[in-house]
């Protein structure tokens, strides 16, 4: 991003007519996010990557070298932003950018917590490289919540000195969602030092306050954390707004909260300037089928929000929150020329997209090239495990009958501790497809510690042999759910061979596979290939009778200690509330 200080003379000269503009857009129906009005017949003059003039007549900025485009009374808005998402998932940033730009999103505020949990600071720097020199703006934060609970977690994180080094990078704005909020309310020493060092450098700190209220929420906000994307109802939104927070209403692959929140925002007459939309992450099928921030705008308008207010929430408010309002967020002199052109205010699919004055989408198609990035070989070798055999998944018992602790899946994400009676056969306690009791095994694949645990999981329902994944929040253990040890070993060896990914196995055959070569969590394949692989993984499990429609979320959340009630990590099965390990067999 260019620095405004280097451009003021040139911008001033164009505005005054002493220098010609590079580009002038005529006959714009301008959505002014500053006055919440639509101004017809507006002209916009651009030099280099910034806007120099906005008004009724830009003729004084035009000479023979100026490109003039007649917008023909179409609607013109600033580029949209997603203020919080994880793009270190599924596809490389360049592949994600292709889809996002078609949705009018010109700025992504990325929280690369997944890659840091796999590969620490080295992984963070490697990921930063992937977001540079793209025709979309990618801003980064250092992860703010790792690990959730150091007693059990094996994940990598950044040291204080690494955090301090990271924020010196021009694209790093501060700290990402501080999701283990009890670390703040309990004033955990490293968390407090991290927050202080961010505040000393005037960095932004994003929040995650699910379940916090009253004095705990006050303590959290008083620590300088001023946003949250976790409210799932309007009362939570209002409580946080009243304490001076900014709210990112989430509408993405993890949750969709617009329907619950927007009608109450409108009936209450809530002040809109501190509301934004965010995705928190989108899987390849969701961004294809629903869209990105454009989807939030369409849905909010259907729920009663005025188009100009929805556009303001999708643009200006994000940059005001991130203290970037002098550069981005609206169409005005001095601002970077991130501009969208729409045929109407219903579909909100941009016909044209300019980023920094350069046309990147025209007639709804990408018209810019994305440079292929060189990926360091080491980040493609993160499954530090040895070849598997059936023995790796065995649980032995000499008894005729055992009572097993089970992780009962209530949803793909929510678990409860349950139990099941199992009859060992030849000294081995096996899964039981008839009673829907599965083995679940986890192996530390990132640190190479040989830590592993095997337990039982209930209520999965699929008719498959094994489902394995190298991607989970935020342990990134290899997790294998299986009905028999043979298929579990085949699935694990497939992940080992691919150095990451998801795979479904039945009767010794691979039914579906999605390689995730970059850190075992991101694919280096094209968006289309990843999308197709992801669909195959989902369908092969769901069509076989799985009780849940998004089975990839099961291994993703199984080790996630920020949620109750029972989780499994390479170190063992964890009772989250009691903060203790529990055995697989009672
Ligand atoms: Fe998040």
């Amino acid at each position: 991003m260019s620095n405004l200080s280097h451009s003021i003379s040139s911008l001033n000269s164009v505005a005054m007519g002493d220098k010609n503009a590079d580009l002038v857009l005529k006959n714009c129906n301008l959505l002014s996010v500053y006055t919440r009005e639509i101004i017809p017949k507006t002209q916009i003059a651009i030099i280099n990557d910034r806007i120099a003039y906005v008004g009724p007549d830009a003729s004084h900025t035009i000479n023979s070298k100026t490109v003039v485009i007649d917008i023909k009374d179409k609607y013109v808005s600033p580029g949209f932003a997603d203020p919080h998402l994880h793009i270190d998932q599924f596809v490389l940033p360049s592949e994600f950018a292709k889809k996002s730009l078609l949705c009018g999103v010109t700025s992504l505020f990325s929280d690369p917590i997944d890659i840091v949990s796999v590969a620490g600071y080295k992984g963070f720097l490697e990921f930063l490289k992937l977001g540079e020199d793209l025709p979309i703006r990618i801003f980064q934060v250092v992860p703010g919540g790792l690990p959730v609970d150091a007693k059990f977690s094996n994940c990598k994180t950044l040291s204080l000195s690494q955090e301090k080094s990271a924020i010196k990078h021009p694209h790093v704005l501060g700290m990402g969602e501080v999701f283990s909020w009890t670390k703040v309310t309990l004033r955990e020493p490293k968390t407090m030092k991290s927050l202080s060092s961010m505040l000393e450098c005037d960095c932004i700190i994003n929040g995650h306050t699910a379940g916090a209220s009253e004095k705990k929420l006050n303590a959290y906000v008083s620590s300088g954390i001023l946003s949250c994307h976790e409210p799932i109802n309007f009362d939570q939104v209002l409580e946080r707004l009243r304490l001076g927070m900014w709210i990112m209403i989430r509408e993405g692959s993890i949750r969709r909260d617009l329907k619950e929140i927007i009608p109450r925002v409108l009936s209450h007459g809530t002040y809109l300037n501190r509301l934004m939309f965010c995705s928190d992450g989108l899987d390849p099928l969701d961004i294809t089928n629903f869209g990105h921030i454009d989807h939030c705008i369409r849905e909010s308008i259907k729920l009663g929000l005025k188009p100009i207010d929805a556009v303001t929430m999708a643009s200006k408010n994000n940059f005001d929150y991130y203290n970037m309002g002098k550069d981005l967020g609206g169409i005005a002199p001095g601002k970077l020329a991130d501009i969208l052109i729409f045929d109407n205010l219903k579909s909100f699919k941009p016909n044209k997209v300019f980023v920094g004055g350069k046309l990147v989408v025209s007639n709804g198609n990408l018209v810019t090239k994305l440079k292929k990035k060189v990926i360091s070989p080491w980040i493609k070798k993160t499954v530090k495990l040895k070849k598997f055999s059936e023995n790796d998944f065995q649980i032995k018992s000499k008894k005729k009958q055992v009572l097993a602790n089970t992780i009962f899946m209530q949803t793909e994400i929510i678990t409860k501790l349950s139990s099941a009676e199992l009859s060992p056969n030849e000294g081995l306690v096996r899964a039981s497809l008839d009673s829907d009791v599965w083995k679940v095994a986890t192996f530390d694949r990132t640190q190479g510690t040989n830590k592993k645990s095997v337990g039982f999981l209930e209520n999965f329902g699929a008719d498959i042999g094994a489902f394995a994944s190298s991607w989970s929040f935020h342990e990134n253990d290899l997790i294998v759910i299986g009905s028999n040890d043979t298929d579990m070993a085949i699935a694990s060896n497939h992940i080992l061979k691919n150095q990451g990914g998801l795979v479904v196995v039945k009767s010794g055959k691979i039914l579906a596979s999605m390689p995730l070569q970059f850190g075992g969590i991101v694919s280096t394949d094209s968006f289309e290939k990843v999308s197709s692989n992801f669909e195959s993984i989902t369908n092969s499990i769901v069509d076989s009778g799985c009780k849940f429609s998004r089975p990839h979320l099961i291994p993703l959340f199984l080790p996630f200690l920020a949620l109750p009630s029972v989780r499994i990590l390479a170190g063992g099965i964890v009772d989250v509330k009691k903060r203790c390990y529990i055995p697989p067999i009672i």
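The chain has a mean pLDDT of 97. Residues 170 and 193 are 22 Å apart (CA to CA).
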